[in-house]
């Protein structure tokens, strides 16, 4: 039997007509006719590739001696590159603005807070600590979804987010004890970035659904208006002249690496927006949290830092939280919790049986 529409594999028996189908595009690839699971897999892969490179280049730039006070100037450079990239893409694709300017004024302010405070915090915190703080946005994202969009979450979603945050907090405590580079100013900065980041995903999702705006449009207007905000602020504070003077002595490290850093970030943002569009803000936050865990491992591999086994146990809590979040997408919360408890008991019994066998063989 033929039909005109796309089968939605995560809702058995439900079909969508062509008029109801929301166009999903990953960079230059059309994923509209792909299943939701395939869209999630491809978007997640893109997030990992581009944002791991993004994190590496970001930390590399901040290894430059004396760059610590110029995080906001780096943000200005980044916003400038994003504006150019977005303008080129809009011209090539003939994209016109659909979302209201008033919405973009708010999005630009939130974007500036997220990116600016995040970049600046690296002058006062280790990269893994900064990433750990950013991962704690999962619960604020859920709260924002409930308040802004009226969404309802399951018990396992709250449990998953709580486990992630507990693990990430333990990671931060370990880092504060063994790392010589831990400044409370950095904590304040990354907390402000966290607050903005928790709000922005829900505002983006609501605006894109209401006005049918494209990812490219959102990126162009958010970052171009944010660039004007930040340029005015830096000119008023005098930090613009200081930033230009310092970076003129290190053009390759700042502007060259900054170009690659911004390109990876721009492509990554496009993919995250696609992920938000097809899967929602909380799923996007979960995927980016997993990516941040990998970025932390890479940071330890390529940039010397002290290590503690508390990092490992904290990471396991985060992984458990991620698993519970994925598992919560099936069945009802009570049966999910009961099944998880049964599986844990089974694993514990198997472990005890193996230990008894080993003891018997000794």
User: What is the succession of H and E elements?
Assistant: EEEEHHHHHHHHHHHHH
Q: What percent of the residues sit in helical stretches (DSSP H or I)?
A: over 70%
Which structural class do you get from the secondary structure elements? mainly alpha
Please state the CA-atom Rg, rounded to the nearest Å.
22 Å
Query: How many β-strand runs?
Result: 4
- The mean pLDDT is 78
Largest sheet: 2 strands, antiparallel
Distance between the termini: 64 Å
Low-confidence stretches: 1-20
How many H/I helical runs?
13
* Strand neighbour order, sheet with most strands: 1-2
Task: Tell me which oligomeric state these chains represent.
Answer: single chain
Shape summary:
globular
Percentage of residues in DSSP E strands:
under 5%
Number of domains: 2
Main location: Golgi
Protein name: Adenosine 3'-phospho 5'-phosphosulfate transporter 2
Keywords: Membrane, Transmembrane, Transmembrane helix, Transport
Pfam family, one: UAA
Give descriptors for this structure:
362 residues, mainly alpha, 2 domains, two-stranded antiparallel ribbon, two-stranded antiparallel sheet, 13 helices, 4 strands, 2% strand, disordered N terminus
């Amino acid at each position: 039997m033929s039909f005109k529409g796309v089968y939605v594999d995560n809702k058995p028996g439900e079909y969508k007509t062509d008029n109801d189908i929301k166009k999903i595009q990953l960079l230059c690839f059309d994923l509209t006719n792909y299943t939701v699971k395939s869209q999630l897999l491809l978007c997640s892969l893109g997030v990992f590739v581009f944002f791991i490179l993004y994190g590496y280049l970001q930390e590399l730039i901040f290894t430059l001696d004396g760059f610590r006070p110029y995080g906001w100037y780096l943000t200005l450079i980044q916003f400038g590159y994003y504006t150019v990239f977005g303008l080129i893409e809009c011209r090539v694709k003939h994209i016109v603005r659909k979302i209201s300017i008033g919405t973009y004024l708010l999005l630009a302010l939130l974007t500036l807070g997220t990116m600016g405070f995040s970049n600046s915090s690296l002058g006062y915190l280790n990269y893994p600590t900064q990433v750990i703080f950013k991962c704690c946005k999962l619960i604020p994202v859920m709260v924002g979804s409930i308040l802004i969009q009226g969404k309802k979450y399951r018990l396992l979603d709250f449990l998953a987010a709580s486990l992630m945050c507990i693990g990430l907090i333990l990671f931060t405590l370990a880092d504060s004890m063994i790392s010589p580079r831990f400044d409370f100013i950095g904590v304040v900065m990354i907390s402000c970035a966290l607050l903005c980041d928790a709000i922005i995903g829900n505002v983006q999702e609501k605006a894109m659904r209401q006005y049918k705006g494209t990812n490219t449009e959102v990126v162009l207007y958010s970052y171009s208006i944010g660039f004007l905000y930040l340029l005015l602020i830096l000119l008023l504070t005098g930090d613009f002249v200081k930033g230009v003077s310092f970076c003129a002595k290190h053009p390759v490290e700042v502007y060259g690496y900054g170009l690659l850093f911004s390109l990876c970030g721009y492509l990554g943002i496009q993919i995250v927006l696609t992920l938000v569009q097809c899967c929602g803000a909380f799923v996007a936050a979960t995927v980016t949290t997993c990516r941040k865990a990998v970025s932390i491992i890479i940071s330890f591999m390529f940039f010397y830092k002290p290590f503690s086994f508390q990092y490992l146990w904290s990471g396991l809590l985060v992984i458990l939280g991620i698993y519970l979040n994925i598992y919560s997408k099936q069945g009802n919360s009570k049966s999910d919790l009961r099944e998880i408890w049964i599986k844990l008991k089974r694993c514990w019994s198997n472990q005890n049986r193996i230990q008894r066998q080993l003891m018997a063989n000794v």
